[in-house]
Automatic annotation (TrEMBL):
Name by which UniProt lists this protein: SH2 domain-containing protein
Gene3D superfamilies registered for this protein in UniProt: SH2 domain
Record-linked InterPro entries: SH2_dom_sf
SUPFAM superfamilies: SH2 domain (SSF55550)
């Protein structure tokens, strides 16, 4: 089982703000097996930024 932990010092007022943030910024990763790989969320179908 793989788990992804988000930054402790970054808080979000809503789920949509979290999605918007990690659509632009890569998710934090401690995976050293793929150092040139970063993961960003895709905006869900129908999502409209605030």
């Amino acid at each position: 089982e793989q788990r992804v932990y988000l930054e402790a010092d970054v808080t979000f007022p809503s789920l949509s703000a979290l999605v918007e943030h990690y659509h632009i910024n890569p998710l934090p990763s401690s995976n050293n097996s793929m150092p040139n790989y970063s993961l960003c969320l895709h905006i869900p179908f129908g999502y409209v930024p605030p």
